[in-house]
Amino acid sequence: MNILILHGVNLNMFGRRDPAQYGVATLREINSRLVELARELKVTVGFFQTNHEGALVERIHSIPDENVQGVVINAGAWTHYSYAILDALAILRVPVVEVHFSNVHARERFRHKSVLAPACAGSIAGFGVESYLLGMRAVCGLISSLD
After folding, report:
1. Catalytic position from the list 7, 22, 52, 105
2. With bands split at pLDDT 50, 70 and 90, how would you rate the model's confidence at 29?
3. Which one of the listed residues 7, 61, 81, 100 is annotated catalytic?
4. Which residues line the annotated binding site for substrate?
5. Domain 2-146 classified CATH 3.40.50.9100?
6. CA distances (Å), 18 to each of 25, 34, 54, in order?
7. What integer pLDDT is reported at residue 90 of this predicted model?
8. 61 tagged catalytic
9. Scanning 28, 64, 67, 115, which has its CA 20 to 30 A from the CA of 44?
10. Could you tell me if 119 and 92 are in contact, meaning their C-beta atoms sit under 8 angstroms apart?
């Protein structure tokens, strides 16, 4: 099983950006935790982070040509307005799980809506690093249920 983790805009700033909302874990530390979980689950995991919306869309476009069975995505602020990312995710024929570090529903009103949700199997928010780990477990479960 091969899982791809997509990190969107500003997520390379984890560990420095608003520690009250996002904690002190860096993106490298988050990815390390995901690698540890991947070993436990006996799956392969890859990562991609960008601050350029078009680059994320192009990375999503490449997924059907690769051996990727599932996607975990934290698109950051793009979650709330990027119809381009929604359209790209809608092309996929693999399970997609949306994750958020903070509880987006307890924050500013504009963060309460995900325009990506229609292309995702589900969303996990508010558990910090655990949101990513739960997202990986969820996507693996979805893939297994398809077999």
Report:
1. 22
2. very high
3. 100
4. 74, 80, 87, 111
5. yes
6. 11, 22, 26
7. 98
8. no
9. 115
10. yes
